[in-house]
Amino acid sequence: MDKAMIADIRHFNRRYTNMIGVLNSHVLDSGYSFTEARVMIEIGMNEPCIANMLVDSLNIDRSYMSRIIRRLVKLGLLYKEASAEDQRVSLLRLTDAGKASYQDLDDRSNELIIRLFRALPPHELEEMHAAMQKIEQKLDQLERRDDDTI
Amino acid sequence: MDKAMIADIRHFNRRYTNMIGVLNSHVLDSGYSFTEARVMIEIGMNEPCIANMLVDSLNIDRSYMSRIIRRLVKLGLLYKEASAEDQRVSLLRLTDAGKASYQDLDDRSNELIIRLFRALPPHELEEMHAAMQKIEQKLDQLERRDDDTI
DNA sequence: ATCAAAAGTGGACATTGTCCACTAAATGAT
DNA sequence: ATCATTTAGTGGACAATGTCCACTTTTGAT
C-alpha cells in the first residue's frame, strides 16, 4: 500500500468522522447522551438485549452500562424481564414510552440523512450509495478473513 | 431518497463509526487523550495554529481548548509564539519533542491502516480507495452547494 | 461439593467537557 | 479620538462521562 493511498484513507476517515460527529450532535438534541442513544438504538433494533451483550457490542464498561440501564429504567424507557434459563441476566426491553422514544430517534436520524444529502441529484446519490456498499463489502471480506486467521 | 437507501447509509455510518472507534482506541495507546491527539494532529498538519481556529475546526469548547493547550505546553510538546499582527493571539507550534511525538502518532496511524487492510488483495484495495474518493467527492459537492445556498 | 468464570452492581474516583464571567486587545462607528 | 462592540483567551465552578475495583449471585465444569 503506497503512502498516497494511506494518506487518502486517513483523510477520508477524518472527514467522515467529522461528518458523523455533526450528525450525532444533532441526534443529541433529543435529550439522550450519545451513549444512551447508542444503547436505546441497539435495544430497539435487537430486542430483547442482555446487558453483557451491549457491553461487548458497544464496547462500554460493565459498571457504566449498569448505570446507564438503571437510568433508562428510571426514565421509564426500559424494563427488565427475568430470564428463565439464566437467573443472572435480565432481558432488556423497551417500554411503550421507550418504543416511542426510539421511534422518534429513528425518525430524526432518517430526517437528518435526508437533509444532509438532499442537495445531491439522484444519480450522484446513487453513486454515493454504491460506494458505501462497496466499502462495506470490503470490510465484510476483512472480517471473514479475520475469522479464518485468528 | 427511499427507505432502503437511508437505512443503508445509516448502516454504513454505524459500521464505519465502529471501525474508526477501534482505530482510535489504538491510537490512544500513545498516551494522548483522543482530543489531545486531534489537537496535536491538527497543529502538526497545519503549523502554526491559532487556538481559536482549532476551536472552530475541531469543535471544542474555548475554555477547554485553553486547558488542553496549557497541558500540551506543560508537557513540552507545544509552545506559544506571540503574533506580530494581533497581540491577542498566540501562534501554536510543535516543539522538537512535539514533532517527534506527532511523527510517532502519524507513524502509528499509518501502521494501523496498513494492518487493518493488509488482508485485502491489491485490486480490492484499489476499489475501496476509489469508493472512498467517490464519497469524498460527493461530500465536496454538498459543501460547495451549502456555500451557495447559505 | 467445590471452584472458576460470568453477569451485574455500587463505591470511589479520574477524565472529559460545559457554562459563565472576566480581561485585554482589536475593530468599527461616529 | 473616543467609545461601544467584537474577538481571543483564561479561570472558576461544575456537570457529564467513563474507569477501576471489590463484591454478590448464579452458572457450569470437574
TrEMBL record, chains A, B:
Top-rank taxon: Bacteria
Residue stretches making up the HTH marR-type domain: 2-137
Keyword set includes Transcription: yes
Keyword terms, alphabetized: DNA-binding, Transcription, Transcription regulation
SMART domains: HTH_MARR
Protein name according to UniProt: MarR family winged helix-turn-helix transcriptional regulator
